[in-house]
């Protein structure tokens, strides 16, 4: 069975004491994760030791990084590499979030390099893709997303691509309170899976978890996650509220 994942993206939020409190409040709830379900916390890098300590001994809960640099080491002041994250036990790294593409000018080619670095470190890229509003309004979202995937991921082998988690995040739905309808989510998730099936075969495509991101909250998670090609969510704002994110974890199928 494909992995079903609730991934929190805290972005650049919370003080260390607020972060500790959020974990404490969230972990009061017993989520009873099944073997195929995971809760992942992409926290600011400085809080990784705290998150690791809070999640010690809890099965299927993981700490993630929000970004990495593609080189392993060297004179890259301020950056953190995939092997460095791996060395502190971080197994998942978010790659190509739309905020990084937009504010930091990260190109498809650069994201291909980052994906390679994450895989070479033995870790799992959570690779983000998704269209802006004008593309959605023009109805060309499928080819837009397909190009992002082809440019950054199609050089990977079949074995490598099964290690990648995809997060489809329509930019017009991120942090806006607007959510894609479950129909819109299913439609493009199925298309993304077909893109991988055309390249790698259906059996490989069926192993790839595709998360939906864009204003997921407790009230809509169950319906969105119930779609056959939606394998959970990447959650920003609602992941900063313990009761909300708990309910989102519990909405996994
Ligand atoms: C995100 O940051 O990836 C995201 C989906 O944010 P939000 O849930 O706030 O829309």
What does this structure look like?
The protein is built from twelve helices and eight strands. It is of the alpha/beta class and 253 residues long. The chain starts with a strand and ends with a helix. It has helices at 16-27, 48-55, 82-87, 98-103, 108-120, 133-138, 141-153, 158-161, 182-200, 202-205, 218-225, 242-250; strands at residues 4-9, 37-42, 61-65, 92-95, 124-129, 165-168, 210-213, 232-235. Strands 1-2-3-4-5-6-7-8 form an eight-stranded parallel barrel, surrounded by six helices. The chain is globular. The protein has a single domain (4-250), classed as TIM Barrel (Alpha-Beta Barrel). Bound molecules: phosphoenolpyruvate (PEP).
Bound molecules: phosphoenolpyruvate
Strand order of the largest sheet: 1-2-3-4-5-6-7-8
CATH topology: TIM Barrel
Structural class: alpha/beta
Percent helix among the residues? 40-55%
Q: What CATH architecture label applies? A: Alpha-Beta Barrel
Poorly predicted runs? none
CATH superfamily: Aldolase class I
- Mean pLDDT, to the nearest integer, reads 97
* N-to-C series of helices and strands: EHEHEHEHHEHHHEHHEHEH
How is the main sheet built? 8 strands, parallel, barrel
Q: What oligomerization state is this entry in? A: single chain
Terminal-residue CA separation? 11 Å
Q: What spatial form do the alpha-carbon principal axes imply? A: globular
* Domains (count): 1
Which radius of gyration do the C-alpha atoms yield? Answer: 17 Å
Count of alpha and pi helical runs: 12
């Amino acid at each position: 069975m494909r992995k079903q994942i609730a991934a929190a993206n805290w972005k650049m939020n919370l003080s260390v004491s607020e972060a500790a409190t959020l974990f404490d409040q969230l972990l009061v709830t017993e989520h009873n994760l099944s073997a195929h379900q995971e809760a992942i916390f992409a926290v600011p890098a400085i809080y990784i030791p705290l998150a690791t300590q809070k999640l010690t001994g809890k099965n299927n809960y993981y700490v993630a990084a929000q970004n990495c640099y593609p080189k392993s080491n060297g004179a890259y002041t301020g950056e953190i590499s995939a092997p460095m994250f791996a060395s502190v036990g971080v197994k998942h790294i978010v790659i190509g979030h739309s905020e990084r593409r937009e504010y930091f000018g990260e190109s498809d080619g650069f994201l291909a390099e980052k994906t390679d670095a994450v895989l070479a470190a033995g870790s799992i890229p959570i690779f983000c893709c998704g269209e802006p509003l004008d593309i959605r309004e023009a109805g060309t979202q499928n080819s837009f997303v397909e190009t992002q995937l082809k440019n950054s991921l199609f050089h990977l082998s079949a074995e490598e691509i099964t290690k990648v988690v995809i997060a489809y995040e329509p930019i017009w739905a991120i942090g806006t309170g607007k959510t894609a309808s479950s129909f819109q989510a299913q439609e493009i998730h199925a298309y993304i899976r077909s893109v991988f099936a055309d390249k790698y075969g259906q059996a490989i495509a069926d192993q790839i978890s595709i998360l939906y991101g864009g204003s997921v909250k407790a009230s809509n998670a169950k319906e969105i996650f119930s779609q056959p090609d939606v394998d959970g969510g990447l959650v920003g704002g609602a992941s900063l509220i313990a009761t909300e994110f708990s309910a989102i974890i519990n909405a996994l199928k």
